Amino acid sequence: MMSSRRRDVIEFLLNNLVWLLLVAVLVVFSLTVPNYFQIGIFANIIEQSTYVGVIAIGLAICIIAGNMDLSVESVAALTAMVVGILFCSRGVGLGYSFSPEWLVVPISLAIALGVGAVIGALNGWLVVGLKMNAFIATLASYIWVRGLVVALSGGRSAQDLAPSLRVIGIQTVLNIPLTAWVAIACFAGFSFVMAKTPFGRHVTMIGGNPVATFRAGIKVDRLVVITFVLAGAIAGLAGWLLAIRSSGATANLGTGMLFNAFAAVVIGGVSLKGGIGRLPGVYAGVLLLSSIHTAINLMGLPAHYTQMILGGLVLAAVLLDTVKLSIRQRLA
Amino acid sequence: MSDLILQLDTIIKNFGAIEALRGISFAVKRGEVVALLGDNGAGKSTLVKIISGGLQPTSGRVMFDGAERHFASPAEAKAAGIETVYQDLSLCTNVDVVANFFMGREIVKRIFGIPILQERAMQAVVETAMANAGTRIPSMRTNVEHLSGGQRQAIELNRFVHWGGKLVLLDEPFAALGVEQTRRGLEMIKRIAGQGIGVVIITHIMAQAFQVADRIVVIRQGQVAGNIERAKTSPDEVVRMITGEGFAQPVPAAGMAGT
Predict the structure, then answer these.
(1) Angle at B126 between CA B123 and CA B130, to 5 degrees
(2) Which of residues 64-93 of B touch A (CB under 8 A)?
(3) Rounded to an integer, what distance in angstroms lies between the CA atom of residue A127 and that of residue A133?
(4) How far is CA B162 from CA A77, A229, A253, A330, B133, in A?
(5) The pLDDT of residue A62 is above 80
(6) Which residue from A197, A209, A217 is facing B117, i.e. has the nearest CB?
(7) Mean pLDDT on A124-144
(8) Do A209 and B93 touch (CB under 8 A)?
(9) Pairing with A245, which of A34, A127, A198, B100 sits 20 to 30 Å away (CA)?
(10) Whether the Cβ atoms of residue B68 and residue B61 lie closer than 8 Å to each other
């Protein structure tokens, strides 16, 4: 029998494997890739991780609850476009403004979160109310919401976002833009909610065994709908940040983010079967992807190598999961 | 307080023209282990569902804890203190023992209105409950998926006892367990009964029924074919009740027992 101290250490290492991997990758790149070891590069990695990272939070919560939300990327694009149309002054922008000018910040944020939450609630209703398969229901949303973005904008773009919003994308604290701090704060907040509150505990248990949680008197249907609303609202936040970074929105803004977010979620140790995964790991997964991306850029390799490495990483993550499981079984 | 925890009075259940139960009456005392035996299709499952609120009887009375009750759902029966323990269905194997024990009843402390899980307090409660029940699990922080079938059952039963259960229905509880685990499971059932909880165990295995039960109730074709103290009967006699071969008839000695 193994001592409990040693068991705890091994458990800790297994739970944080992706962080160790991230550190290892950063060390290797710093030693081998010229110009990699710079504050600016690291700040850039964190900034790059903002949008995929925020989207990955909602996606991960949905997957941990035993579901799936493929619509997050399109929802982010939709909210970016809505913010762009309302508060940009050129292109399709209508250029609404308020009399203390800063009011645009809370109002645009509330609109973005609201739009995301509405789509999320619709997804939740399709899955819980109509008992549709989450994969199919949200795949449909992925398609029609993107269509709605194109329809709303007529395929044109919105430019010149209200200046008080753009400040958030330009202003930096400790070399890191405010937008990235928003992502970090989201990870910290939702990691806490998932690990330390009954909500997170119940969502995790629903992902493990919905029948048992239902029998224990937990309101399974209500919680599942909430995870979809959260995923939508968080995607709305990502869209808001995207609009700020690009000072507007285009109809194809953010395409491809879904699969990056998916890769990050899987690499971060979230099981697609549900019930397993931690949000800090997901953030490490996003940072890992950005680190590799940055290294490839610095080495001047063609961009498609990123995709090949990304695919390989996802496979490696799934293999790693199997190894972790067998180690855990030996621990018990 | 009556010493009967459950009393069934001429329970009849019809599914259309089919009479599944044709007037079942028996009682379970507090702290008594009753083995419910019967062939496939005798009506055991229907009866268990009626007791646990999953089905409503066509007629007849269910008296529980001194009052007539009509449970409209398993949740109502559960709230009153009746629970069916299944092999696996009621545990989340992806979380640890503590999380399963407190499923839906977590101890929280509100900080700025946000409920925060109190892991240490919960772990202490689980450790005490498990120790009192004589169940040994290496770590309360182990995920249930790494535990054996017997340990899982122990978690479920201890959880049930801890949250004020009064009557537990065990449907084929040892179907998937090994010899040693079954022995421990039977011991645990006796200990639970020792705390004044009524236990109804449904099983096919005669040896188990005789090891653990205080009384044996046999259901045959929707009726009680036998209701007898364990000490006053034999496996041979019970088998005859189950199959319905003439009660008083002497049977050839060989080959009937140990089904």
Answers:
(1) 140
(2) 74-75, 78, 89-93
(3) 6
(4) 51, 36, 55, 30, 10
(5) yes
(6) A197
(7) 93
(8) yes
(9) A34
(10) yes
Q: Determine how β-strand B167-171 pairs with β-strand B114-117.
A: unpaired
In a domain, A293, yes or no: no
pLDDT at B246: 59
Number of neighbours of residue B113 by Cβ within 10 angstroms: 5
- A197, A208, A218 member nearest B104 (Cβ): A218
Question: Where does CATH 3.40.50.300 sit in chain B?
Answer: 1-81+165-259
Q: How far is B49 from chain A (nearest CA, A)?
A: 15
Residues B124-139 have pLDDT tens digits of: 988 888 887 777 787 8
The domain containing residue A226 runs over which residues?
49-258
Contact flag B104-A331 (C-beta cutoff 8 Å): no
Q: Which helix (H) or strand (E) holds A78?
A: helix A72-87
For A112, phi then psi, to 5°, come to: -60, -50
CATH fold of B1-81+165-259 reads Rossmann fold (3.40.50)
- Residue-wise pLDDT for A192-203, tens only, equals 999 999 999 999
Residue B174 has pLDDT above 80, yes or no: no
Contact (Cβ atoms closer than 8 angstroms) between residue B27 and residue B6 = yes
**Are residues B215 and B228 in contact, defined by beta-carbon separation less than 8 angstroms?**
yes
B106 touches chain A (CB under 8 A): yes
pLDDT of residue B249 exceeding 50: no
Of A7, A207, A329, the CB nearest to B94: A207
Rounded-to-integer distance, Cα A229 and Cα A113, Å: 10
Q: Cβ of A328 and B143 within 8 Å?
A: yes
Q: Confirm or reject contact between B252 and chain A (CB < 8 A).
A: no
Residues of B in contact with A194 (CB under 8 A): none
Q: Do B103 and A218 touch (CB under 8 A)?
A: yes
Chain B residues with CB under 8 Å of A205 CB are 92, 94-95, 99, 103
Quick check: is A16 in a domain? no
What crossing angle do the helices spanning A39-64 and A220-245 adopt, rounded to 10°?
150
Nearest-CA distance from A278 to chain B in Å? Answer: 13
Q: What are the DSSP calls for A227-257, one per residue?
A: HHHHHHHHHHHHHHHHHHHTTEE-TTTTTTH
The full DSSP string for chain B is --SEEEEEEEEEEEETTEEEEEEEEEEEETT-EEEEEE-TTSSHHHHHHHHTTSS--SEEEEEETTEE---SSHHHHHHHTEEEEPSSTT--TTSBHHHHHTTT---EEEETTEEEE-HHHHHHHHHHHHHHTT---S-TTSBGGGS-HHHHHHHHHHHHHHTT--EEEEESTTTT--HHHHHHHHHHHHHHHHTT-EEEEE-S-HHHHHHH-SEEEEEETTEEEEEEEGGG--HHHHHHHHHT--SSS---STT-S--
Distance CA B18, CA B12 (A): 11
